[in-house]
Amino acid sequence: MKSMTKLMVVAMLLVAALVVAPAAAARTVTDNTGATVFIGEKNVNLNEVFGQDATADGIKGTLVYYSSITTGVDGTQIGTIQKTVSVPDTKSFELTATDFGSLTGQWYAFPSGSGDFSRMAVPVEGVVTDLYKGTILVQKPSVKLDVKLAKDGKVTTDSVDGKKVTRNSQIAFELEHNLGIGIEPPFVIDVEVTTPNGGKLNQLGKKVGTETAVSLKNLRLTGQKNTTAAIALVGMDAGTYTAIAKWPSKTEILGSDFYNKGYDSNTVNFEILSKAIAISSNKDSVVRGNNFVVTITGESKADYWVFVKDAAIPAKEYPTMLPDQPGVNTTIMTGGMINLEPGYKLPSSLATVEGKNVTNTVAVVGTKADGTRAIEFKTTGDTKDRQFTIRVQEVKDTNKYDDVKVRVEEGDVTITASGTGVYYIGEEITLSGTCTDNKDWVYLFLTGPNLPAAGVNLTKLDKAVSDQEVTFTQEEVEADDTWSYKWNTADLADDAVRTLDAGGYTIYAVSQPKNKDDLSDAKYATAAIQLKTGFLTATSSGAKIAKGDDLKITGTAMGDPDNVFVWIFGKNRQVLGESATVESDGSFEYELKGGETKDWSAGQYFAVVQHPMMDKKQGVYKYDDGKIKGAPGSGINEIYIGKLQASDAATALIQALDSPNIDDTYVKLTFDVEEPYIFIDPIGDKEAGSKFTITGTTNVAVGDKLIIDVTSAAFGPSKKTEASGFGAVSGNVVVEKGDGANKWSFEVDAADLKPDQYIVKVECIETDTTNTANFNLVEKVETTPTTVTTTAPAVETTTTAPAGETTTEPTPTPGFGALVALAGLGAVAFLVLRRK
Predict the structure, then answer these.
(1) Closest CA relative to residue 590, chosen from 541, 628, 548
(2) CA dist., res. 619 & res. 629, Å (int)
(3) What is the pLDDT of residues 713-766, one digit of tens each?
(4) Residue 17 covered by a domain
(5) Is residue 317 part of a domain?
(6) Do residues 664 and 551 both lie within one domain?
(7) Burial degree of 616 (CB within 10 A; 0-12, 13-18, 19+)
């Protein structure tokens, strides 16, 4: 019973407390010309905005949002209404997100009964009078949270959001917002911190200079920015902390209007390190030739040693710091010696070689305001593949340090040669691949017949010497670790000490300038290729060509020349070294149109097709009318071949090309130019209505067109009883290759041709050649079939006499032959009688 009594007393006390507890604080807006209110606010007194006394009760009104406003010439203002919101009680109004949505900005207040809200102002007795009573500026509450670095109790501008700090650091929370201008009492908000263990705190650390925790509750929002007191992190747990500014839920606090309505701030985080100083690397391992970055974390704007610990290796095998990095002072070292600042203590275990510190492996590094600094290290193909220790250390207390280990690993090199691996000297070969063992360069050299065993570079063909980069062919490695080099096997350097010859070769791609004798110290790959000397084939369009026909010289020139050169010698005719383009597949074509050969004399012609070989330059060339000359250094002086007969001119050119000082090759051709002819084979008589073929031979070029006309030779008056006109057949045929002379054929359908004599005319336009022939078209001979009569043989009857009686043989009747004989005798008798 006593327990029940106690419970009743407690309940009564709670009711009393609720009765006396203040209601949620109301905000009275006294400025009716654009005072700011926020979506989510409750119990806002807008009486004065609606033109009422602040204490008046039960006043209604309407808030109007216009998408546009226009003003007439008389001063009348007309607004385009986008939305209206009813205000049931202007003394206590809640701005809900449902009512206002995203329509922030100016809203106009009209008292109840104002009528047409589109009319905002009208002239009254010559004076423009507003029909609305006031305006408010509606905004969404906005709070942005940041965590700043503090030093000596003062908040800096350096953000440590997402960064690391030490226990010796100081921080403060900053609130940037739109809720503090002209609002009394001010809004308040809480900052809630989640610890690495998941706990929720509204206080943190210690206020600088005290042992009191810094409260993060009921933070007043005034002006545009507010910060907490500086928070010392001494003694706090290591790990990541997350913070958010939240609107409180207590009803007596003005900020409660925004509680749980989605208007809390963003989140921030920071990590407290377990050590006073720390170092980390962005990579646990790195392929040599690539860079890596270490980041140190310590006190704000403090100096620290950062160095690579001694590994007892040559200087070039250490990773080194890139020069001229902000806050990274490598100039403390001069001539391998460290210049100490006053009070600084030199670290032990620095990288040294022969008692001298290794350049760019040690520096004094100054942290930024947030206590951090990043330092980039470079590795090369020379960097040793092993694990290195990078240390950060106090400059005055060498017992305070932190280490990070980074392993440098060997990369790899690949090489591929374009195509099949078989090339003609003079062709361009694309060499490509990857190089992860050196970020800057890949080094190329060549081995093969009659070359130094250690290898030569690809352009001078001079010996590649280990560790002397300029003696190798170098190609830059791209950012994606790929490389590509185009090697023109004919484009050797002017000071090349050798030339390439046919044979098998091996191309090496190496991550360091090491020749074949020193490849154990580098990554490399090889590609095998086969080089062949260029060659030439050529043929003319025919052994014989008719004057006026096209002349074509075609063939294949391997070795990737740009052009071949055609020389032609005939009776009083010379074509001297005219170029023909060589296509990508090695084919070429040189053509002289029929108009050019029309005036050529009949007879034998000599042609020479010249291949410039690997240097792609004519060793013998035309340099003046009718004159040829050898390339410089060939020893071939001017030869005036224009005054030589065809065979002698061709011989002079060939002798020049055969010089050992000329690398060009050539092909010789001969062909005959003939007067054009067209022969028509004998046709003979043909029957009307039949189909037959007219054939013939010619020396005009294969592919030329012949025009065939078959016309009647008759000429006379037509008969009215017959169709008038002459019969004719015509068409085109193409000359085909024959077994000697070229051939042609034309099929004639004589179904519509009448018996007559016909003329066949065959004409070639290209060579201006014509020939004719005649044939007869005769009536078709009708054939009458022969009827054969068969006479049955006479049946002989044999009569057998009865026994005892005598048989008499019948008298024979004359047969077919006897009848004929008798008839003949009768005829003779008749003739005799006539003569008598």
Answers:
(1) 541
(2) 8
(3) 875 444 555 554 457 899 999 999 888 788 999 999 988 888 999 999 999 988
(4) no
(5) yes
(6) yes
(7) middle
529 Cβ partners below 8 Å, 6+ apart?
A: 417, 421, 422, 423, 429, 504, 505, 506, 507
Instruction: Please state, in angstroms and rounded to a whole number, the distance separating the CA atoms of residues 182 and 136.
Output: 13
* pLDDT tens, residue by residue, 206-259: 999 899 999 999 999 999 999 999 999 998 999 999 999 999 987 556 667 899
Q: How many CA atoms does the CB half-sphere of 714 hold within 13 Å?
A: 16
Residues 98 and 150 in one domain: no
- Distances in whole angstroms, Cα of residue 297 to Cα of each of 345, 385, 392, 712: 20, 28, 9, 112
Q: How many domains does the chain have?
A: 6
Shared-domain flag, residues 122 and 157: no
Query: What are the tens digits of pLDDT across the range 53-96?
Result: 999 988 999 999 999 999 998 889 999 999 999 999 999 999 99
- Please say which residue of 409, 434, 451 terminates a domain: 409
Q: Quick check: is 818 in a domain?
A: no
User: What CATH code is carried by the domain that includes residue 486?
Assistant: 2.60.40
**Considering the domain boundaries, does residue 788 fall inside one?**
no
Asked if residue 248 and residue 197 are part of one domain, the reply reads yes
Assigned token pair, 700: 């005009």
The answer to whether residues 119 and 164 belong to one domain is: no
State both tokens at 589: 């074509």
pTM here? 0.50
Closest CA to 489 of 419, 552, 559, 440: 559
| Token pair for 797 | 């009857």
Please, what's the largest Cα pairwise distance for the chain? 197
Residues 101 and 164 reside in one and the same domain = no
Show the tokens assigned to 682.
Answer: 């004998």
Number of Cα atoms under 13 Å in the Cβ half of residue 631: 14
Residue range of the domain that includes 156: 143-272
What is the rounded distance in angstroms from the CA atom of residue 69 to the CA atom of residue 376?
A: 60
The length of the chain in residues reads 836
